[in-house]
Backbone:
C-alpha cells in the first residue's frame, strides 16, 4: 500500500452519511445508513481522520438499531470510551466546514473496522495509509489502553 492515499482512490469505499442534531444541546452526530452499516463495527473503537488529524471514535448502533452512528471524535481511545472526560472534536470539525445539520457528509472506509475518513462532499483529501494490526497485537494494545 502507498504511504498516502486519496479519497477518490478506487480501493476506498465512500459512504454518504448525514450530519444530524443529537440531544437537547444539539450536538452533532454522523448517521450512517443501514445499507452501509456492515462496514462499521458496532460498539468498536476506530480511527477517524478529519482535517488531517487522526481521532478515535466509537461506532454505535442508534436506538432504532438501524445503521450506525458516530457521536464524537476524541484524542485517545480512553476519551472515546469516556466521552464526558474529553473534548469532542466533531463540533470543531463541523465549524470548519460548509456542512449544516441534515446535510450529507462523506465517510471513507480506509481500512474496514479500523480506520475511516470524514470529509465534506466535494472535498478531495489524502490519508496516511495505515493497516490494522493483527488480532493478537490488537488484543494486547486494547489491554494496555484500559
Residues:
Amino acid at each position: 500500500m502507498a504511504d498516502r492515499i486519496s479519497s477518490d482512490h478506487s480501493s476506498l469505499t465512500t459512504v454518504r452519511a448525514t450530519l444530524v442534531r443529537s440531544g437537547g444541546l444539539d450536538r452533532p452526530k454522523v448517521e450512517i445508513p443501514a445499507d452501509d452499516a456492515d462496514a462499521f463495527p458496532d460498539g468498536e473503537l476506530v480511527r477517524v481522520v478529519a482535517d488531517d488529524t487522526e481521532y478515535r471514535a466509537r461506532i454505535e448502533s442508534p436506538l432504532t438499531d438501524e445503521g450506525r452512528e458516530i457521536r464524537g471524535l476524541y484524542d485517545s481511545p480512553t476519551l472515546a470510551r469516556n466521552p464526558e472526560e474529553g473534548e469532542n472534536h466533531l463540533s470543531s470539525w463541523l465549524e470548519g466546514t460548509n456542512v449544516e445539520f441534515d446535510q450529507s457528509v462523506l465517510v471513507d472506509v480506509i481500512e474496514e473496522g479500523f480506520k475511516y475518513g470524514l470529509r465534506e462532499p466535494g472535498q478531495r483529501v489524502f490519508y496516511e495509509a495505515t493497516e490494522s494490526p493483527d488480532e493478537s497485537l490488537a488484543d494486547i494494545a486494547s489491554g494496555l489502553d484500559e
